[in-house]
Design a protein that fits this description.
The structure holds two protein chains of two kinds. By secondary structure, chain A is an alpha+beta fold. Chain A contains seven helices and five strands; from the N terminus they run H-H-H-H-E-H-H-E-E-E-E-H. Chain A has a five-stranded mixed β-sheet with strand order 2-3-1-4-5, with helices on one face. In chain A, a hairpin with a 5-residue loop joins strand 2 and strand 3. In chain B, the strands form four sheets. Chain B has a five-stranded mixed β-sheet with strand order 12-11-15-13-14. A four-stranded mixed β-sheet of chain B has the order 2-1-3-4, with helices on one face. In chain B, strands 7-6-5-8 form a four-stranded parallel β-sheet, with helices on both faces. In chain B, a hairpin with a 5-residue loop joins strand 11 and strand 12. Chain B is globular. Chain B starts with 6 loop residues before the first helix and ends in a 17-residue tail after the last helix. The N terminus and C terminus of chain B are likely disordered. The chains are: A alpha+beta, B alpha/beta. Chains A and B meet through helix 2, helix 4, helix 5 and strand 3 of A and strand 11, strand 15 and helix 18 of B.
Amino acid sequence: MPVLHPKPPAPTDDKRWKIVETRMRRMGDRPSALIEALHAAQEAFGYLDTEALNFVGDTLGVPHSRVYGVATFYSFFTLKPQGEHTCVVCTGTACYINGAKEILVGLDRALHVKPKETTADGKISILTARCLGACSLAPAVIVDGDVKGKVTAAELVAQLEAM
Amino acid sequence: MSEMPSAARSIRRRVSTEEIAEQPPRASAYVCEAASCMSAQAHDITVRLGERAAEAGLTDVLIKRVGCLGLCAAGPLVEIAETAQLFERVKPDDVEGIIKALKKVKSTDTRQPQGPFFEKQLRVATENLGRIDPESLDDFVGRGGYEALKRVLSEMTSTDVREEITRSGLRGRGGAGYPTGLKWTTVAKAQGAQKYVICNADEGDPGAFMDRSVLESDPFSILEGMAIAAFAVHASEGYIYCRAEYPLAVSRLRLAIRLAQRAGFLGAGIADTSFNFDVQIRLGAGAFVCGEETALIASVEGRRGTPRPRPPYPAVQGLWDCPTLINNVETFANVGAILRKGSEWYAGIGVGKSKGTKVFALAGRIVNTGLVEVPMGMTLREIVYDIGGGLIDGRPFKAVQTGGPSGGCIPAQLLDMAVSYESLIEVGSFMGSGGLIVMDDTSCMVDVAKYFQDFCREESCGKCVPCRVGTTQLYMLLDLITRGEATLDDLAQLERLAGIVQKTALCGLGQGAPNPIFSTLRYFRDEYLAHIVDKVCPAGVCTITPAEVTA
């Protein structure tokens, strides 16, 4: 099917836009590529800003309002830049009954940061995950990509403070 | 949640000793490289074993990466395949011991019993887990993989295939238990030139990791099952809708698709016949509701994942309004085995209308956290105590939660119940996708109900009022109870509202959301009353202090 709308140029000459463009082109630049395109943009830039949302929408012929609607519907997408380090706390059932709540309380008390927030110094972002599927390690967290199992609030706070 | 375990990136590295063993190896060490063991640095063990085996000049030894060995609680796991000797919690220092064990293996050795965790299981959907290298098509074919597809394409008509699946009694393993053969027949008979097959791998139930383990450990069996289904319903295109939270599963699926395409098991003219079928992956983005089939379709189409009323069912009008077959990962994993071993064999397993086996993910306060597959009809007691090894620290059993946020909590007096689709519904729970979360006396059942309500409230897509508003109101009532501020009128209101949400919500998420409340009220009403009347939390979880809340 031919694309009837003109394709916009990349917002900047940042090479990462090429990755996003390629991913969309492989799916025929069709509106159905929207979620895949947002994945590509977030992988490339770490988060989705207005520039990225509009570029994806214009390329695929999807209204900006719908792009925003999709980006905010799915919790995997983030519209805010993340801190230097990220700590994902699993709040799946197995982690919950093994102390995930205490970990979140401990982080809030020591670092004054709640889920989906970044510390005031921009160093650490706290996220939660519904279930990492690492139930044998409950309670589990992911610090900068490394899964840590059977953690306590005190240990985790100490590790994050040392970063 | 955009974080991915670093393990996913290192998986592509080849294992050095694999090429050494040209003849059948005398001894083999299988290293579990599924997500749980990977996050405990299992890949380092594989590499180190390979290096040490090479240094020791063991040319007749195979070091193999395999999928989930099941006993996740004791990872990283290494198994000597010939003797079934299992090494648990392997650290780099333990590698020498494994090398020594490999040296001792004789050609006359046979696999020894591995204890009740393994011996009481019956593996059908998970038969290749922990046995094959999930990144090797040859390994899959060596275990009988693609035999079923070849036979289907050369000897059977699509009607034969559908009848065989119908006779097997296989039912949807995603939770609802709809007869698979019937669904296939509906799609096959639906009008439309273009039809689709979708594999639902959006495993959203917290505490459930069956699909993840199967995808990470045996991705080809899903592709084979989907291809057979596509032949049976006359589809030529397929999608796997997988959670983005499972990076290892996604990368292994991508590789499996490439290998299967190259070998002619996907694409045009499969296995030298005129049958065409290809598969693409679509990533989820962290929306639980997308496990619901109409929401899943919306998401594959690139839209917000909101469900729509059924009928029309996707079998008649699904993806891009074409007839679409949607089955769960575990359902597809059973298809190859059924066609290889016959529907009579499969229908001979199980109990009543629940045929075959079910994969469960054991988690919570249980000793043997891990992945198990048992015949339908096994009692909960056998699963929890014999296979699961009982509760951690020998604490008293309080409840087992099944069915995720749409399920319920089953109390100790029902432990001798035989597990089937029907029996679980009878006791107010739900099969769900297969998460079994064991709770001891340190869990407060009101708090658990509140946890699930919080989940449903957050995951509600917002389309229908009963779910969007109802789950929030239910959550607030439960919160009131756990803070010791509720009255008996609030409890009556909770029950009334739960009934309304159940009856009026649009999709399964909303209709199932009150289930944890109903089941905890049915079996643990005394705990609710303790919070409301006596202002105490019997488990000591909820902080009830009249003056202030100390978190």
